[in-house]
Amino acid sequence: MPEPTFTSRFTSRRGLLFGTAAVSAGALLTGCTSNDPKDEEPAANDRPAADDKPGKQVTIGFAGPQADHGWLNAINDNAKSRAKKYSDVTLEITEGSNDTAQQIGQIETLINKKVDVLVVLPADGKALTQVGLKAMRAGIPVVNLDRIFNTPQAYRCWIGGDNYGMGLNAGHYIGEKLKGKADARVIELAGLDNLELTKQRTQGFDDALKNYPNIKKVARQAAEFTVESGQAKMAQLLQAQPRFDALWNHDDDQGVGALRAIEQAGRDDFLMVGGAGALSAFQAIKQDNGVLKATVLYPPTMAASAIDLARALGQGKGVGGLAEYEIPASITLYSAVVDKENVDQYMSTGFR
Amino acid sequence: MTQPVSPPRGSTDKVPQVPLPAWRGLVARADVRTLSLLGVLAALIVIGGVTKPDEFLDTRNLQLVLTQASVIGVVTVGMTFVITSGGIDLSVGAIVALASVWATTVATQEYGFGGILFTSVLVGLGCGLVNGLLIAYGGMVPFIATLAMLASARGLALQITDGKTQIVTVDGILDLGERDAYVLGVPPLVMVFAVVTIIGWLLLNRTTFGRRTVAVGGNAEAARLAGIDVRRQRLYLYLLSGLCCGIAAFLLIILSGSGQNTNGNLYELDAIAAAIIGGTLLSGGRGTITGSVLGVLIFTTITNIFALNNLQSDVQQIAKGAIIVAAVLVQRRTASTT
Amino acid sequence: MAPEPPLLSMSGITKSFPGVRALDGVDLDVQAGEVHCLLGQNGAGKSTLIKVLAGAHQPDGGTIRWRGEDVTLRSPIAAMRLGIATIYQELDLVEHLSVAENVHLGHEPTTAGFVVRGKAARASTAALLHRLGHPEIDPARLVGELSAAQQQIVSMARALSHDVRLIVMDEPSAALDPDEVDNLFRIVGDLTADGVAVVYISHRLEEIRRIGDRVTVLKDGRAVAGALPAKTTPTREVVALMTGRNVEYVFPERPVTDAPAAGKPLLEVRGLARDGEFEPLDLTLYPGEIVGLAGLVGSGRSEILETIYGARKATAGQVVVDGRALRPGSVRSAVRAGLGLAPEERKAQALLMLESVTRNVSVSSLSRFSRAGWIDRGAERDAARAATRELSLRPDNPSVPVRTLSGGNQQKAVLARWILRGCRVLLLDEPTRGVDVGARAELYAVVRRLADEGLGVLLVSSEVPEVLGLADRVLVLREGRVVHTAPARELDEHRVLDLVMEGSPAS
């Protein structure tokens, strides 16, 4: 058996025994993230911020964490394909790292290269604040993606998802579906419990449910954003709750495992709402032959938008559709609920 | 020869005066430990039965607990052999991850059921072979060699998946996890776990392989001077652990219907903890498959009871730590009194 | 006139270990400023006595008076506080620490109680090393990088770093070259001139004559003579004291004929050598013969046995069994050819202490009781029982854990392992170490019977009477070299002791 080496992500892939798999997966991915302008009008946030006409050349430095999760991987792909779309943008992308020190080093390298704009998704927002400040002082505007720095001085513009809003929208969606049902029971399959964002999602969900006195949350277990943990925790929840009406699952990746557990238990007596917006979830929603009826977005397209913002900053332009001359300091994305009605519109943004 | 020699007066010789009958010796030593584990398990069952009588004391729940125990259980059987021989395998979780993603690439899935099974087992064996060669013939310390394997296998798994979840579409695999596949109420995963356990038990207790494992762990120098090929034995042991990881990866693919680079997270710690609680000596020389399996069942049952009672993960983790400490302390006491 | 009380006065010290009474009422008086020599064969109790003196062992009985007052030495620290320092034969230095750190280990000069003042430690260490005549040793170097002789000096510096009144030196000259020995004697002279007492242990009579003042001779856990004048007591008298028996060992009858059993040799060792351990050795062993190797610690006897067995790889020569050469450095090749080793450190090198007697006995013969790896446990148990019965192993229950056995019976378990294996050449390394006196006779009889049944036995022992009583032929070793070969009946203990200590037959 040939032992794969670590020389390069791409050459080594082909050296694998069943290497073609990964390659074809890659091809599928480029298909679905849509860098083809001829696509039927895709997601709203796929619309370019400034205009499409080539302008001043801009070099954008991009630093993100290690893509060890479907969503993070989609972030990288969104950024790359968006940058490719503009002939006036050069993207300097670093190897993703979860090591704070290493990421600081990578960003400092980008500063020294004098890129025009920086887009940073920090592995740890607090720990990377200093290097954000350093870039801003060096006159390089920073677009802070999703995980926020400690101080607004460290970025020119923050763009990111709304974890509280995810929970809120999931709660309202379920609330409306169960309206009129007396003594309704819901359960929650949360993500990694030691993350702040998990607490925010749960908080939003609980706050929304307060509006529906007929609904009671009867159980909550935390998985770890992995398929394996999703299956394990969901299997236990199903055994613990012989009857419930709705389930909110924080993350579509662990949802793959949760759906397996539901299938293995032979249950279909409730509705399920997911989170994040994975392609597999969209497909299941579209087919509508299982418990998964909707998912709440935490869109990885924010990386594409960040490239748009960075380009606009580099060219000194504003955002289209707003009266402002300047780009806003902070943009919180809306956590839209995707269900059967609107799933086609989002299909191209789904990540694997 | 004439009379047995009595020790000189005033000596504190520890020669036993009256040897116990063999069966009593067995109950007194080996089984005190097993009995105490069964006692812990019984206590847990009482707790579960009292707090959630309907949900806990239920055939479906028994099936659930055993199914959830299967994957880590198979890994623990392999780990028990390695620890018994005085070694350690920190790479089990990473090998499970690598085997599960390699076996679920689109290309592998084209070969269907056989391709997935074959690839999982082969990747497990391959990693075990590398571990074994490095340790037995490369003279590396098991801790370091398997730590290196942990890092490399996880990295390779990430590289294969690119962080994506590889969903399994082979129906033959998915069906095995569902209720229709249960034979007389026994899930196929549990059957595999049972077979691995029985084979492991026989291998450790009834074969020359098991004897040599114990000898190498108890006193490697004595084993060498007694004419045992210590190095070859070590190679086989890490191969065995790798094989168990490959089987576990296959089970995990059935269970989760996917391959992901995050699979098998912290399995190494769970497997070591279960083996140690079961009564296998971390320093080697004594191992028990029965104890290891009971250790796994205890952990799985705790998780089950906590989930049924809707306790959160922080409490679960604290309890798990407390139980490890308590079990090891109890073991030390029983060890010192026998 | 009020006589000055002795610096140290030990009386009636007893100490027992499981199966052995190591000290049986020992008296020892040491005066300030004298060099008091301790003599005795291996197992006479010297090591136990100095460990009691160092606070490492607690005596079962007897009193210790220090400068006229009763004291209890509860721990090594307590002994050190009184001013008793011990330099062990096996150096107890930490290799990965520097010289200065070793010298001050446990009493580092500190600021505010915990900040180690490295510079001060190095300076005082340098001063000590200068006083010991070795200013060339750098206090900052790691001890592991030093030669054995230099390590000895560091050990001594450590002893002197305390306010010391009595120093125990256990065979300090064993690892030293002649001119280093001279330096050692100069140091001993300086110390005694300052009023420090030295308890000096050595096998070399000539050294004792040069620096000793008085001699105490230990024998079987008792002081058979105290306060002999070191310079004038005749060698013959000293050796007689060391060898005179209280308990006569009972050795089995030797076969009448001296000539080796007819036929081909069983084992031939041709020019076998290991650099730095022993010089090329030739040896032939016939079936039914017991050949003894006599020598002191460090004479290379254990190394020779282990090299024959393949546990160490020879740098030259070969081992031939039944005309076929063994693969060098391969224990498995030796075991297959029919060799079996009962090593010196039974617990560390032979026994699986957590396992039963049966499993310890069967471990080398597993393939005999198994088909396709499957063990027939009934056959295993029966065979182990037969082998242990043949040796009268007690208790007669092979399912008990081997760790519950006495030393003699543990040794029998090791022998049973090789009997079961059908081994043809037994290599015995200190077979009676840790075996009490009564059980020894039984072991001797077993070994002789095995030889009578056609085995060849190669025996290593530091107890000269054992070698002389049991072996048919004896090779006397000194510093890795065979200095004499003779039939055992032509040798006596006195002669062998002379040979191993002096290197040439005493005149």
TrEMBL record, chain A:
Species name for this entry? Answer: Streptomyces aurantiogriseus
Q: Which GO terms describe its molecular function?
A: carbohydrate binding
Keyword Signal in annotation: yes
The protein's name in its UniProt record: Sugar ABC transporter substrate-binding protein
Could you tell me the superkingdom of the organism this chain comes from?
Answer: Bacteria
Family classification: Belongs to the bacterial solute-binding protein 2 family.
Keyword Calcium recorded: no
**Keywords of this entry:** Signal
Q: Which GO terms describe its cellular component?
A: cell envelope
Where the record annotates domain Periplasmic binding protein, the positions are 60-317
Protein's cellular compartments = Cell envelope
Q: Where are the transmembrane segments?
A: none
UniProt-annotated stretches for the region Disordered: 32-56
TrEMBL record, chain B:
The protein here is known as ABC transporter
Its subcellular locations are: Cell membrane
**UniProtKB keywords:** Cell membrane, Membrane, Transmembrane, Transmembrane helix
Lineage of origin: Bacteria, Bacillati, Actinomycetota, Actinomycetes, Kitasatosporales
InterPro entries from the xrefs? ABC_transp_permease
Q: Which residues cross the membrane?
A: 32-50, 62-83, 90-107, 113-134, 141-161, 181-204, 235-255, 289-308
Which CDD domains has this protein been placed in? TM_PBP1_transp_AraH_like (cd06579)
At the top level, the lineage of the source is Bacteria
> What PANTHER family would the database entry show?
ABC TRANSPORTER PERMEASE PROTEIN YPHD-RELATED-RELATED, RIBOSE IMPORT PERMEASE PROTEIN RBSC
> In this record, what's one Pfam family?
BPD_transp_2
Molecular function as annotated in GO: transmembrane transporter activity
